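Batch manifest line 257
LIGAND: S-adenosylmethionine
JOB: complex structure
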Amino acid sequence: MARDHYYNKAKQEGYRSRAAYKLKQLDRLEDVIDRGDTVVDLGAAPGGWLEVAAEEVGPEGQVIGVDFQRIDDFEDHDNVETLRGDMTEDKTRKRVVDAADGTVDAVISDMAPNMSGEYSLDQARSLHLARQAFETALELLEADGDFVVKVFEGPDVDDFRADVEEEFQYVRATSPDASRDESSEVYFIGKGRLTAPVRPGDELEVEITDVGSEGDGIASLEGYRLFVSGADEGETVAVRVEDVKPTFGFAQRLDRA
Ligand SMILES: C[S@@+](CC[C@H](N)C(=O)[O-])C[C@H]1O[C@@H](n2cnc3c(N)ncnc32)[C@H](O)[C@@H]1O
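JOB STATUS: finished
ARTIFACT:
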């Protein structure tokens, strides 16, 4: 294996893997990990991402790493917990959910299959792992949480991206510098998990139960606040949803559109 720039840098700076720099670059790009966060790292061995995540969340944060390979204990970080298991099995997913009792702010997955050398097979397996990571992220993330996932480029990756886009405020695709040049891996960063019961374009009838500080009417949908301009408290109006943020959204009255 070529001992490249990031391999040498990892050795010098004491990270367990060159992959550490990919997470640093992804985090710099979209600010996925903040101080005090709880982060779940899937496919975490040998632990470069865990080290970077542990530094980023600080002592008041928590990092949970999962891999079916053994992850050596961390002497420098006592905010990292590791689990050994296969993420394609329900029982591992359940253990991860149990370990993260509380809000999870980010789910990050660098899972990759064992390479068979046959690209189409490896690519299909990579996509399968990415989908498992996505399911886990949907189960764990609260509103506004972030998701990072690696996948090998190929068929059905556009469909996968579209599915992630449905569940997050936006998705950015990137290939960090620290990925090897020849590699065809891409990372999707899903920012701002949407748990809203509506999506842009939805048309529905809502009851205005409050008025915001700017004078917009507010409807509450299962606790999610939808702002409707030009609607008064007590009115029931037909609206079209225009914009959905993680914790609130905007809608237009249909009778005045
Ligand atoms: C590229 S490595 C991760 C490197 C890691 N991010 C780091 O910084 O050290 C990919 C990892 O995914 C793990 N993996 C692949 N399939 C998995 C599965 N089904 N469940 C759990 N881990 C898996 C592999 O064992 C491998 O350790």
